[in-house]
Amino acid sequence: xxxxxxxxxxxxxxxxxxxxxxxxxxxxxxxxxxxxxxxxxxxxxxxxxxxxxxxxxxxxxxxxxxxxxxxxxxxxxxxxxxxxxxxxxxxxxxxxxxxxxxxxxxxxxxxxxxxxxxxxxxxxxxxxxxxxxxxxxxxxxxxxxxxxxxxxxxxxxxxxxxxxxxxxxxxxxxxxxxxxxxxxxxxxxxxxxxxxxxxxxxxxxxxxxxxxxxxxxxxxxxxxxxxxxxxxxxx
Length: 235
Prior knowledge:
Elements: H1 5-27, H2 34-48, H3 50-58, H4 64-69, H5 71-93, H6 100-132, H7 141-155, H8 160-174, H9 185-203, H10 207-234
Helix pairs in contact: 1-2, 2-5, 2-6, 3-5, 5-6, 7-8, 7-9, 8-10, 9-10
């Protein structure tokens, strides 16, 4: 199976993390107590398990929704990794003064909390994806689009002109006519897919494409609002 560039980069980071952790563990003259080996084992596990966490977070990367909503899952994995590695090093350094059962219990509780967080985040993602599928012929289409833009803004880290355009687009959607109808169904589907493409561009860090998509989506939204007004005037 051919790996993507991002997957190769990720595996390189995992490899370097393993090397760095092992250098610290065996070059620094830690006492090789039971606490040392417990800390070492949990630290190694925390690094290696990131492969499974990232697979869970971004499996099916062709789906923009799965990729975007996978970030909270990945974030939990990274937080667990950092906390576990730091505590493992601390345990290895203080192995002569800490009873083995204390470090074992602490690390198991941390692992259980991280696992619970991953399961919860994955369940939320599945529910959001299921709700997204209901956009077609749904009277709340514009609310769904507004929600998608709010999530995009809250979970992205952009600034400058792109941030301004994203906020402007979100406000335009928020204050658009919320009532959908047969006349706007097709253009609202177009809006939906454009926002998905916008999400993908932001997630991929392609700010240039994201900026173009913001302006394009704003134009489509303006046409949708014109159709809404025209449809009301005809009635």
